[in-house]
Write a structure and sequence with these properties.
The complex is a heterotrimer of chains A (270), B (265) and C (151). With 270 residues, chain A is α/β, with parallel strands linked by helices. Chain A contains ten helices and ten strands. Chain B has one domain. Chain B is globular and about 65 Å long. Chain B starts with a helix and ends in a 5-residue tail after the last helix. Classes of the chains: A alpha/beta (270), B mainly alpha (265), C alpha/beta (151). At the B-C interface, α3, α7, α8 and α9 of B face α1 of C.
Chain lengths: 270, 265, 151
């Protein structure tokens, strides 16, 4: 029984038709921790999130969420399970036809029978947690990018989930908003006792706030460890990724014929 | 040359297969929407909200177009009927053309371009900005919560809009022929009333507009839900909604008319 | 937009729409005889109905009192059976005479009823005994020539 680990991923494989995206992933995510999943674009990070939320089914292996094997659940059970999960999309994905207040209240109205006055109190509490109580009457198109993401964060913690997944939470934010979001993630995780999974490119900010890091490359876990481990790591891939070097295990060039051949210079006499 | 011909034929074949395939997917989606309509019927507020966007906001264009179509019908009808000395039948002409054909069809065409395109664009944009995915992850079914209320609002507002269109048209015809030209107003109404039948004209027109409402909104929600999540994809889907539903309206109108008025007069 | 304002507008829209439907039914269409449940059925056998069609009016003294709902051919008697839905506020004597007439020179054909003097009234499902067929131009000419020839 996994009272410690909220999520256990066991020998997970996933492929789109013949193209293997994930190959034999093992991960454990304990409760109350912030875990980062890093990797280059197209390395299968977002697919991993979709496997955890049960949007897609694995080719083999399984994801276990608080004791349940996600892909074996029926549709109703899966929807029940998803109420314990929150997801923060890259650009917030706020419902543009609802006000900030109604966005946060959305899940409460859909899934609970709370009275309007209780919903009002809860929504204001959630908005207060992200510092936007005063903005509850605004519409999403009146918010800045950072504010929209904070509202989305408030929305995803509306029903006090056990897990929140963040898909690129730092993309396209100014340094101040970026700090605000980063610290919010850490603080909410600690105060609400939930588990957070961050999928990000932003190495510096992520390493500041997370407890554990997984690096994914070519569908396998290339490296893992605490931020301190990772920073000290001498593994070539990790080194390249953290320091953003142009060439290394991840090559600068897309696989191609030889340059000479492509430019039609022939093979003779230079 | 032959290569060009072969590729042209292949292209036609490809389009036909694609069309049939889409028809299948669309029908399945339509059934899915019907299946998941429980939520929107239980929580009718969701439908009322959408009724504002599909119905109330389409009112102006329907009222104005109805008025003008009726005025033109009155004017042209009078000009033609006058040659045969039967200008008293102008009320009949205006009312019958509106109630049987122009009301449902023109209102449906306007509705497709006003409300149908808006529905497609809205759902398409919600998809492109991951709002639908976010909803799914909040354990709320987007088909039940977003698509079905829009579908039902369209189904409800279409017959009402068609009726408003017809009434405005009859009024427009009255304005031109009675008020401006001077046809006797008693003749206008009584000729109309003796020729227009409740069952065969008004009820059939109403049934037509119900069919159109279902067809337009079913196409609109499907195109929106099926749109590729990009700006280009949404704009193409919007165009397709207007083109497809216009063609479907005209085709359906012929079929329904053939069924309703077969063997009668 | 505030919920209440929105509801108000939708309410107005629905009322206007239903009002339009009502107006179409009552003012434009003559929603009275055909659709009202207050009607009774009469049948009549005609040798020749000419150009009579379903939905043609049934008139008495020029007033519409019913409508033709069905026309069938009887294979026993080889004549046409016309079914009429009559407004139940009008009742006619048993010996009422039904004839197929034409409104104007080129107008549509209708059934004209001229009341008789019988005490007993026609009831639902009754058959009108006395009928007069439509005028057919060829028969008229034929009869005219026949008469001329016999003179």
């Amino acid at each position: 029984m996994s009272s410690e680990n909220l999520i256990e991923i066991n020998d997970l494989n996933f492929s789109y038709s013949t193209r293997a995206i994930l190959k034999g992933i093992h991960m454990t995510m304990p409760r109350g921790k912030v875990i980062a999943i890093m990797g280059g674009s197209g390395s299968g990070k977002t697919t991993l999130l979709r496997l955890i939320s049960g949007e897609v089914k694995p080719s083999s292996g399984h994801v276990k969420f608080s004791g349940n094997i996600v892909h074996e659940l029926s549709r109703d059970q899966l929807f029940k399970l998803r109420r314990k999960m929150g997801m923060l999309f890259q650009f917030g994905a706020l419902f543009t036809d609802l006000s900030v207040f109604d966005n946060v209240a959305f899940q409460m109205r859909e899934h609970t029978n709370l009275t309007e006055s209780m919903i009002r109190d809860l929504v204001l509490m959630k908005l207060n947690a992200v510092g936007l109580r005063g903005a509850h009457h605004l519409m999403p198109n009146e918010l800045s990018g950072g504010m929209a993401r904070r509202v989305a964060l408030a929305r995803s913690i509306a029903l006090d989930p056990m897990l929140i997944m963040y898909d690129e939470p730092f993309t396209g934010l100014d340094p101040i908003s970026l700090s605000v979001i980063g610290n919010l993630i850490r603080r909410l995780t600690d105060t609400l006792g939930m588990t957070s999974i961050i999928v990000s490119h932003d190495v510096q900010k992520s390493l500041e706030i997370v407890d554990y890091v997984y690096f994914i490359a070519d569908g396998v876990i290339a490296a893992e460890g605490t931020p301190a481990d990772v920073l000290a790591s001498t593994a070539p891939f990790v080194h390249q990724f953290i320091h953003g070097e142009e060439d290394g295990p991840v090559p600068f060039h897309y696989p191609a014929h030889s340059y000479r051949q492509d430019l039609d210079l022939g093979e003779v006499g230079v | 040359m032959s290569k060009y011909l072969v590729s042209a034929i292949q292209n036609i074949g490809h389009r036909v297969i694609e069309g049939i395939w889409r028809l299948g997917v669309g029908t399945r989606f339509f059934l899915l929407v019907l299946l998941k309509s429980g939520t929107s019927l239980r929580r009718f507020n969701l439908v009322i909200r959408e009724l504002y966007f599909t119905g109330v906001l389409s009112l102006i264009i329907i009222v104005v177009s109805g008025l003008f179509v009726g005025m033109v019908l009155g004017l042209q009808g009078y000009e033609t009927l006058q040659k045969y000395g039967s200008e008293s039948a102008v009320g009949t002409l205006v009312a019958l053309s509106l109630v049987r054909e122009l009301g449902p069809v023109v209102a449906a065409l306007l509705f497709a371009s006003r409300a149908g395109s808006a529905i497609t664009a809205e759902i398409g944009l919600m998809k492109a900005t991951e709002q639908l995915a976010a909803m799914g992850l909040m354990a709320v079914d987007p088909v039940a919560r977003v698509v079905a209320p829009r579908f039902w609002s369209g189904v409800i507002s279409m017959p009402l809009l068609a009726a408003i269109f017809s009434v405005m048209g009859v009024f427009g015809g009255y304005l031109v022929t009675v008020v401006f030209i001077g046809v006797d107003q008693g003749t206008y109404w009584s000729q109309m009333q003796s020729a227009v039948d409740f069952h065969f004209d008004i009820l059939n027109g109403f049934i037509k507009s119900c069919f159109f409402g279902v067809a337009i909104t079913a196409i609109a929600v499907f195109e929106g839900y099926d749109a590729p999540p990009t700006a280009e994809g949404v704009s193409r889907a919007t165009t397709r909604t207007v083109v497809t539903s216009s063609l479907v309206i005209l085709g359906l109108d012929f079929i329904l008319t053939a069924f309703m008025f077969r063997g009668v007069s | 937009m505030q919920r209440t304002t929105l509801d108000l507008w939708v309410g107005i829209f629905v009322i206007v729409g239903i009002g339009a439907l009502m107006m179409l039914s009552l003012k434009v269409g003559n929603l009275n005889i055909n659709s009202s449940t207050q009607s009774y059925v009469l049948t009549g056998h005609f040798e020749n109905i000419g150009g009579l069609k379903v939905r043609a009016p049934v008139k008495s003294a020029g007033v519409v009192v019913g409508r033709v709902t069905n026309i069938q051919f009887n294979t026993q008697t080889y004549d046409a059976v016309v079914t009429m839905a009559m407004d139940s506020s009008f009742s006619f004597p048993k010996d009422t005479f039904a004839s197929i007439l034409t409104s104007g020179l080129l107008g549509e054909q209708y059934i004209g009823l001229s009341a008789g003097g019988d005490e007993v009234m026609l009831k639902d499902g009754d058959n009108i005994m006395k009928t007069n067929s439509a005028m057919v131009l060829e028969e008229l000419i034929g009869r005219f020539l026949f008469n001329k020839a016999s003179e």
